[in-house]
Amino acid sequence: MDEAWRRRGIATRLIDALRAIARDRGAWVVYVQADPPDAPAMALYSKLGTREDVCHFDIAVR
């Protein structure tokens, strides 16, 4: 994302709207993924939720 649009609360408001939709549909969690090199995303998601360290595997389909 362009630096000029960061730190304005846009992503937080979008996630809050998604939380409301998810809650209304009976979901218990919103899952997001971020890669450690993406520091802004990691910071945002860490502020909003609980971090889980998991292994992700990409398996080629050939």
From TrEMBL:
Stretches assigned to coiled coil: none
One Pfam short name: Acetyltransf_1
Every N-acetyltransferase domain range: 1-62
Highest taxon, organism lineage: Bacteria
PROSITE patterns: GNAT
InterPro entries the record matches: Acyl_CoA_acyltransferase, GNAT_dom
Protein name in UniProt: GNAT family N-acetyltransferase
Organism of derivation: Luteimonas composti
